[in-house]
C-alpha cells in the first residue's frame, strides 16, 4: 500500500471552505478512479493549510493521484491556493484500523 500527502497553503481564510467544497464536488470523483484506490482524506489544519492524503494499493495509483490533483488545481482551483503543494509519497509501513 502507498500514500501521498499533499499540503496546500490556502489563499486566505475565506478560501478554505470554497476549496473544500470544490474538492468534494469536483476532485473526489477523479481521485476515486485512480488505479488501486483505497482512501482519500482532507485535513483542515486550522492555520490556512489543508492537507490531503490519498491511499492506493500501488505506487502507480498514488502517482496517478498526484497528477490528477495537479491538473485539477490548475484547471479549477489555482485561485484558491498559494503555489504548489508540498508533497510526500511513499510506501505505507504501518497500517492500523479498527
Run of helices and strands: EHEEHE
What do we call the CATH topology? Alpha-Beta Plaits
Mean of residue pLDDT values: 97
Cα-based radius of gyration, to the nearest Å: 13 Å
Proportion in β-strands: 25-35%
> What best-fitting shape do the alpha-carbon axes yield?
globular
Strand ordering within the main sheet = 2-3-1-4
Outline the low-pLDDT stretches: none
What is the rounded distance between the termini?
17 Å
Roughly what percent helix? 25-40%
Number of strands: 4
User: In this structure, how is the largest beta sheet organized?
Assistant: 4 strands, antiparallel
> What is the CATH top level name?
Alpha Beta
What is the CATH-assigned architecture? Answer: 2-Layer Sandwich
Structural class category:
alpha+beta
Count of separate structural domains: 1
Please tally the helical runs, counting DSSP H or I stretches of 4 or more residues: 2
Detailed description of the structure:
- Helices cover 36% and strands 31% of the residues.
- With 98 residues, it is an alpha+beta fold.
- It has one domain: Alpha-Beta Plaits (2-Layer Sandwich).
- Strands 2-3-1-4 form a 4-stranded antiparallel beta sheet.
- The radius of gyration is 13 Å and the shape is globular.
- The mean pLDDT is 97.
